[in-house]
Design brief:
4-stranded antiparallel β-sheet; alpha+beta; about 45% helix; 2 domains
Length: about 210
């Protein structure tokens, strides 16, 4: 039996809103020795932290970052305190909306050359096979680009069998993401998030002592 329709019912109430921050970061320059004028052309980042939903959103010159950490996954820790203690790889893996790891061309070529030399020394390949692999690698190296290098190596039958559909690229942190972390996020953590983290630690210590 269905209930008796009584008409639309709507309730409205205020809730705790997100906290917004603006971070400015940039090198300063002494413009004039005469009057000591200092100028800066900073990057701007808008940071939104919503304790109610557990969402973080960042927009700025270094890109977009967003992710949600619900309260049930943090226990009694506030989002502000939780964010303070995150490491680079974890934060970027969750929140970065753009690649934070990129292929390192020089390191990739060096790694592949070392593998060929190592296999030759331990007799996994003979001198002729090592020379063929080396020559193909040197030719592919002329692309000066990891994507082109990998494509060329897969066109070579010996390298294709050796790589076995795996990507040999050596990865490194994107310089722009490292700058965001060092120049924007960590200063923001120290200035804004650290007091919340310290308060949480103190509360936990008091609870354990009780």
């Amino acid at each position: 039996m269905s209930g008796l329709a009584l008409g639309l019912h709507t309730t409205c109430q205020s809730v705790e809103g997100p906290k917004a921050y603006e971070v400015r970061s940039g090198d300063r320059h002494l413009q004039s020795l005469e009057d000591g004028e200092i100028r800066s052309w900073p990057d701007y980042h808008f940071i939104l932290i919503d304790e109610r939903t557990g969402h973080l959103m960042i927009e700025g010159g270094f890109g977009t970052f967003s992710y949600g950490w619900p309260a049930y996954g943090r226990g009694k820790e506030s989002l502000h305190a939780f964010l303070y203690d995150l490491h680079f790889d974890y934060f970027m893996g969750k929140a970065a909306r753009q690649p934070y790891r990129i292929a390192d061309f020089d390191a990739t070529v060096l790694s592949l050359k070392r593998e060929v030399l190592s296999d030759r020394r331990c007799r996994a390949i003979d001198d002729e096979e090592a020379r063929e692999l080396w020559d193909a690698l040197v030719e592919a190296e002329a692309d000066n680009d990891c994507d082109g290098l990998v494509r060329d190596l897969y066109r070579d039958s010996a390298w294709s069998a050796r790589l076995d559909c795996s990507d040999p690229s050596v990865m490194r942190d994107h310089p722009g993401m490292v700058r965001f972390w060092d120049e924007v996020w960590r200063p923001f953590c120290e200035d804004v998030l650290r007091p919340h983290w310290l308060a949480h630690r103190e509360q936990r210590a008091q609870e354990k002592a009780a």
